[in-house]
Amino acid sequence: MERNKLFNILDQVKKGKIPPSAALKKLKSLPFESCGPAIIDTHRALRCGFPEVIFCQGKTPSQITLVAKKILEHHDELLATRANEKAYQAIKKVSRKAVYHKLARAVTVSKKSKASSDKKKAKNFILIVSAGTSDIPVAEEARVTAETLGHQVKTLYDVGVAGIHRILGHTKLLEQARVIIVIAGMEGALASVVGGLVDKPVIAVPTSIGYGASFEGLAALLTMLNSCAAGVTVVNIDNGFGAGYAAALICKSSLPR
Predict the structure, then answer these.
(1) Rounded-to-integer distance, Cα 45 and Cα 56, Å
(2) 156: helix, coil or strand?
């Protein structure tokens, strides 16, 4: 149940177009609904602004199909993360509008037309920066997430500190962004560099890319947590989804209501 749908139901009751009993029938599934082994949080869009997201890893195709069907019964948008080809096909059984973002390991469904999309203008865009090309899958997960939540996204990939002139050559773009997501593996120093250049929130994402003493992302995580650049916050290792979601909320909170 989304805010606009709930408002329309209440408005119809107020105007006498539908009786309270009919409205109650429409609202009976709030705030959750059982779906096989899962319990769908149908109230989440009302609380958080976006429906429950399907985390596909560890779920069977049949479970994914059941959950996707239930979410799309209540909402016009769907996002599934850590999805493979089998997860995509499971969701496609529910909606032919399913789109597979292979690099991001994500599936999206939108019942809305492009004309009705609520994407914010470039003046309030999210910038996603990656240190290397190996970090791009996590960056793409962040991009797909933020765009699905209705925000403009620009990307700047392969600008790590090993060639620091690459990021310094894009200071104007850094200054224009509303919020910046910085994704880096190995030692994770790029987040501190960007944090020291801008006056806006920086969301740092350590990745598991690296070898030896990088400890599958732990070194980058500790570097980012210990950043001396003010304004840098950190999400979990490889958590592009969490970074994209947080950036979207920051952008949303800065817009006039």
Answers:
(1) 19
(2) strand
Instruction: Quote the DSSP letter at residue 121.
Output: P
Residues in the chain: 257
Q: Please write the tens of the pLDDT for every residue from 229-240.
A: 999 999 999 999
CB 203 within 8 A of CB 227: no
- Burial class of residue 210 (count of CB atoms within 10 Å of its CB; 0-12, 13-18, 19+): buried
Q: At what angle do helices 61-74 and 85-92 cross, to 10 degrees?
A: 40
CA atoms of 144 and 148, how far apart (whole Å): 6
Domains of the chain (ranges; CATH) run 33-114 (no CATH), 122-253 (3.40.50.1970)
Provide the 10 A C-beta neighbour count for residue 189: 19
pTM for this prediction: 0.82
Report helix, strand or coil for 245: helix
CA distance 5 to 72: 13
**Facing residues of 127 across strands?**
154, 180
